[in-house]
Design the sequence.
């Protein structure tokens, strides 16, 4: 991998200041960037995307969280359509 003089100096400085090897500094940097840019690929990423999606919709059944499987199993689409928030 090619690093210009400025990036090489930065890598050396971070490695020296943290006591980590240059390879470990690069690994941690890669992981940090991946966590910032690929949040949905991380465990729980897709869940974070739907939290709050219904907001405070008044048409959402009060027992939706508890009975979600029952609503899906019986295909209660009429209630589901009323609960959708666009």
Sequence:
């Amino acid at each position: 991998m090619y690093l210009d003089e400025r990036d090489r100096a930065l890598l050396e400085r971070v490695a020296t200041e943290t006591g980590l090897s240059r390879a470990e500094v690069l690994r941690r940097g890669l992981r940090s960037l991946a966590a910032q840019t690929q949040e949905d690929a991380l465990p729980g990423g897709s869940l974070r995307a739907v939290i709050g999606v219904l907001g405070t919709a008044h048409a959402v059944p009060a027992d939706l969280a508890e009975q979600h499987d029952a609503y899906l199993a019986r295909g209660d689409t009429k209630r589901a359509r009323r609960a959708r928030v666009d």
About this structure: The mean pLDDT is 79. The chain is about 65% helix and 0% strand. Residues 54 and 86 are 9 Å apart (CA to CA).
